[in-house]
What does this fold into?
Amino acid sequence: MKPKLRLAVLASGSGTNLQSLIDQSQQGKLDVEIVLVISNNPQSGALERAASAGIKNLCINHRNFPQRQDFDRAVVTALQQAKTDLVALAGFMRIISKVFLEAFPQRIINIHPALLPAFPGLHVQKKALEYGARFSGCTVHLVDDDVDTGPIILQAVVPIHSNDTESTLAARILEQEHKIYPQAIQWFAEGRIIIQGRSVTVSGARSADVALINPACE
Ligand code: GRF
It folds into this structure.
Protein backbone atom coordinates (compact mmCIF):
# COMPACT_ATOMS: atom_id res chain seq x y z
CA MET A 1 0.00 0.00 0.00
CA LYS A 2 1.22 3.51 -0.88
CA PRO A 3 2.26 5.43 2.28
CA LYS A 4 -0.11 8.25 3.23
CA LEU A 5 0.82 11.87 2.60
CA ARG A 6 2.38 13.23 5.79
CA LEU A 7 0.61 16.49 6.57
CA ALA A 8 1.65 19.11 9.12
CA VAL A 9 -0.74 21.90 10.10
CA LEU A 10 0.38 25.30 11.43
CA ALA A 11 -2.23 27.40 13.22
CA SER A 12 -2.35 30.37 15.58
CA GLY A 13 -6.04 30.67 16.40
CA SER A 14 -9.03 28.58 17.32
CA GLY A 15 -8.19 25.80 14.88
CA THR A 16 -11.55 25.08 13.26
CA ASN A 17 -9.84 24.44 9.93
CA LEU A 18 -7.53 21.97 11.66
CA GLN A 19 -10.61 20.34 13.18
CA SER A 20 -12.21 19.89 9.77
CA LEU A 21 -9.03 18.16 8.55
CA ILE A 22 -8.98 15.90 11.63
CA ASP A 23 -12.69 15.07 11.22
CA GLN A 24 -12.43 14.31 7.53
CA SER A 25 -9.37 12.14 7.98
CA GLN A 26 -11.10 10.24 10.79
CA GLN A 27 -14.11 9.75 8.51
CA GLY A 28 -11.83 8.34 5.81
CA LYS A 29 -12.59 11.22 3.41
CA LEU A 30 -9.10 12.68 3.65
CA ASP A 31 -6.37 10.20 3.02
CA VAL A 32 -3.47 11.77 4.94
CA GLU A 33 -1.65 11.26 8.18
CA ILE A 34 -1.57 14.46 10.25
CA VAL A 35 1.90 14.00 11.69
CA LEU A 36 2.33 17.30 13.50
CA VAL A 37 0.49 20.45 14.56
CA ILE A 38 2.55 23.53 15.38
CA SER A 39 1.36 26.79 16.87
CA ASN A 40 3.30 29.94 17.63
CA ASN A 41 0.59 30.81 20.16
CA PRO A 42 0.51 28.89 23.46
CA GLN A 43 -3.23 29.71 23.78
CA SER A 44 -4.17 28.37 20.35
CA GLY A 45 -7.16 26.03 20.34
CA ALA A 46 -5.37 24.09 17.61
CA LEU A 47 -2.96 22.62 20.17
CA GLU A 48 -5.84 21.31 22.27
CA ARG A 49 -7.68 19.98 19.26
CA ALA A 50 -4.56 18.11 18.16
CA ALA A 51 -3.98 16.72 21.65
CA SER A 52 -7.59 15.49 21.87
CA ALA A 53 -7.15 13.70 18.56
CA GLY A 54 -3.86 12.15 19.70
CA ILE A 55 -1.82 14.16 17.19
CA LYS A 56 1.69 15.28 18.07
CA ASN A 57 1.62 19.01 18.77
CA LEU A 58 4.21 21.63 19.53
CA CYS A 59 4.13 25.23 20.61
CA ILE A 60 7.04 27.14 19.11
CA ASN A 61 6.54 30.63 20.47
CA HIS A 62 7.86 33.25 18.05
CA ARG A 63 8.44 35.60 21.00
CA ASN A 64 11.32 33.41 22.08
CA PHE A 65 13.20 34.10 18.83
CA PRO A 66 14.87 37.46 18.18
CA GLN A 67 14.82 37.01 14.38
CA ARG A 68 12.03 35.72 12.12
CA GLN A 69 14.49 33.39 10.42
CA ASP A 70 15.49 31.76 13.70
CA PHE A 71 11.84 31.04 14.44
CA ASP A 72 11.40 29.64 10.94
CA ARG A 73 14.49 27.45 11.33
CA ALA A 74 13.04 25.93 14.50
CA VAL A 75 9.73 25.28 12.71
CA VAL A 76 11.50 23.75 9.69
CA THR A 77 13.57 21.45 11.93
CA ALA A 78 10.42 20.18 13.66
CA LEU A 79 8.68 19.67 10.30
CA GLN A 80 11.66 17.80 8.90
CA GLN A 81 11.95 15.61 11.99
CA ALA A 82 8.29 14.65 11.46
CA LYS A 83 9.12 13.77 7.82
CA THR A 84 6.48 16.23 6.59
CA ASP A 85 5.43 16.04 2.92
CA LEU A 86 2.97 18.94 2.89
CA VAL A 87 2.56 21.95 5.19
CA ALA A 88 -0.93 23.46 5.57
CA LEU A 89 -1.17 26.90 7.13
CA ALA A 90 -4.57 27.26 8.80
CA GLY A 91 -4.86 30.68 10.37
CA PHE A 92 -1.10 30.83 10.97
CA MET A 93 -0.40 34.47 11.75
CA ARG A 94 3.29 34.59 10.84
CA ILE A 95 4.92 35.59 7.57
CA ILE A 96 6.92 32.74 6.07
CA SER A 97 10.57 33.57 5.35
CA LYS A 98 12.84 32.31 2.58
CA VAL A 99 14.40 29.73 4.92
CA PHE A 100 11.00 28.06 5.31
CA LEU A 101 9.98 28.38 1.65
CA GLU A 102 13.22 26.86 0.42
CA ALA A 103 12.88 23.89 2.77
CA PHE A 104 9.42 23.02 1.34
CA PRO A 105 9.31 24.28 -2.25
CA GLN A 106 5.71 24.26 -3.58
CA ARG A 107 4.79 22.25 -0.52
CA ILE A 108 3.29 24.98 1.67
CA ILE A 109 -0.37 25.89 1.21
CA ASN A 110 -2.61 28.43 2.88
CA ILE A 111 -6.31 29.15 3.24
CA HIS A 112 -7.38 32.77 3.03
CA PRO A 113 -10.90 34.07 3.84
CA ALA A 114 -11.39 36.19 0.71
CA LEU A 115 -11.47 35.75 -3.04
CA LEU A 116 -7.86 36.52 -3.91
CA PRO A 117 -6.42 38.61 -5.43
CA ALA A 118 -9.10 40.80 -3.81
CA PHE A 119 -8.50 41.57 -0.15
CA PRO A 120 -5.16 40.03 0.84
CA GLY A 121 -3.85 40.51 4.37
CA LEU A 122 -5.85 40.89 7.58
CA HIS A 123 -9.46 41.84 8.53
CA VAL A 124 -10.58 40.92 5.05
CA GLN A 125 -14.26 40.31 5.78
CA LYS A 126 -14.48 43.87 7.13
CA LYS A 127 -12.65 45.16 4.06
CA ALA A 128 -15.00 43.31 1.69
CA LEU A 129 -18.05 44.76 3.48
CA GLU A 130 -16.64 48.28 3.55
CA TYR A 131 -15.78 48.06 -0.12
CA GLY A 132 -19.37 47.11 -0.94
CA ALA A 133 -18.35 43.90 -2.72
CA ARG A 134 -21.28 41.61 -3.65
CA PHE A 135 -19.23 38.46 -3.27
CA SER A 136 -16.37 37.30 -1.17
CA GLY A 137 -15.29 33.76 -0.40
CA CYS A 138 -12.15 31.81 0.34
CA THR A 139 -9.04 30.71 -1.48
CA VAL A 140 -6.61 27.85 -1.10
CA HIS A 141 -3.26 28.79 -2.59
CA LEU A 142 0.39 27.87 -2.62
CA VAL A 143 2.54 30.06 -0.44
CA ASP A 144 5.20 32.16 -2.14
CA ASP A 145 7.47 34.94 -0.92
CA ASP A 146 4.76 37.60 -0.60
CA VAL A 147 1.55 37.77 1.44
CA ASP A 148 -1.42 35.88 -0.07
CA THR A 149 -0.01 36.05 -3.61
CA GLY A 150 0.85 32.43 -4.45
CA PRO A 151 -0.77 30.36 -7.25
CA ILE A 152 -4.44 29.61 -6.59
CA ILE A 153 -5.58 26.00 -6.23
CA LEU A 154 -9.31 26.46 -5.64
CA GLN A 155 -11.82 29.01 -4.45
CA ALA A 156 -15.35 29.13 -3.07
CA VAL A 157 -17.59 32.12 -3.73
CA VAL A 158 -19.82 33.39 -0.92
CA PRO A 159 -22.44 36.08 -1.58
CA ILE A 160 -22.45 39.11 0.69
CA HIS A 161 -25.90 39.96 2.07
CA SER A 162 -27.00 43.52 2.70
CA ASN A 163 -27.45 42.82 6.42
CA ASP A 164 -24.14 41.01 6.86
CA THR A 165 -21.79 41.95 9.67
CA GLU A 166 -18.14 41.04 9.78
CA SER A 167 -18.96 38.03 11.95
CA THR A 168 -21.92 36.68 9.95
CA LEU A 169 -19.88 36.92 6.77
CA ALA A 170 -16.83 35.32 8.42
CA ALA A 171 -18.98 32.43 9.65
CA ARG A 172 -20.43 31.74 6.18
CA ILE A 173 -16.97 31.91 4.62
CA LEU A 174 -15.56 29.60 7.30
CA GLU A 175 -18.18 27.00 6.43
CA GLN A 176 -16.79 26.91 2.88
CA GLU A 177 -13.20 26.89 4.15
CA HIS A 178 -14.01 23.66 5.95
CA LYS A 179 -15.00 22.14 2.60
CA ILE A 180 -12.34 23.40 0.25
CA TYR A 181 -9.24 22.95 2.42
CA PRO A 182 -9.72 19.20 2.92
CA GLN A 183 -10.53 18.90 -0.79
CA ALA A 184 -7.33 20.66 -1.89
CA ILE A 185 -5.26 18.51 0.47
CA GLN A 186 -6.94 15.35 -0.77
CA TRP A 187 -5.95 16.32 -4.32
CA PHE A 188 -2.34 16.66 -3.14
CA ALA A 189 -2.60 13.23 -1.52
CA GLU A 190 -3.87 11.78 -4.79
CA GLY A 191 -1.01 13.43 -6.72
CA ARG A 192 -3.47 15.36 -8.89
CA ILE A 193 -2.10 18.89 -8.43
CA ILE A 194 -0.08 20.11 -11.41
CA ILE A 195 1.76 23.41 -10.97
CA GLN A 196 3.03 25.33 -14.00
CA GLY A 197 4.09 28.83 -13.04
CA ARG A 198 0.98 30.59 -11.71
CA SER A 199 -1.32 28.04 -13.18
CA VAL A 200 -2.48 25.14 -11.05
CA THR A 201 -4.55 22.40 -12.62
CA VAL A 202 -6.22 19.53 -10.86
CA SER A 203 -6.08 16.48 -13.00
CA GLY A 204 -9.56 15.05 -13.63
CA ALA A 205 -11.40 17.76 -11.65
CA ARG A 206 -14.68 19.10 -12.99
CA SER A 207 -14.95 22.85 -13.58
CA ALA A 208 -17.80 24.78 -11.92
CA ASP A 209 -20.55 25.48 -14.42
CA VAL A 210 -22.72 28.11 -12.74
CA ALA A 211 -22.39 31.87 -12.76
CA LEU A 212 -23.62 33.74 -9.68
CA ILE A 213 -25.36 37.09 -9.71
CA ASN A 214 -25.94 39.06 -6.50
CA PRO A 215 -28.49 40.60 -5.95
CA ALA A 216 -30.28 38.04 -8.08
CA CYS A 217 -31.75 39.14 -11.43
CA GLU A 218 -35.54 39.19 -11.60
C1 GRF B 1 -9.64 31.35 8.82
O1 GRF B 1 -10.63 32.25 8.40
C2 GRF B 1 -8.51 31.29 7.83
O2 GRF B 1 -8.94 31.46 6.51
C3 GRF B 1 -7.69 32.48 8.25
O3 GRF B 1 -7.73 32.45 9.65
C4 GRF B 1 -8.93 31.80 10.08
C5 GRF B 1 -8.53 30.67 10.96
O4 GRF B 1 -9.62 30.08 11.56
N1 GRF B 1 -6.39 32.45 7.65
P1 GRF B 1 -9.46 28.75 12.40
O5 GRF B 1 -8.34 28.98 13.43
O6 GRF B 1 -9.12 27.63 11.46
O7 GRF B 1 -10.77 28.55 13.07
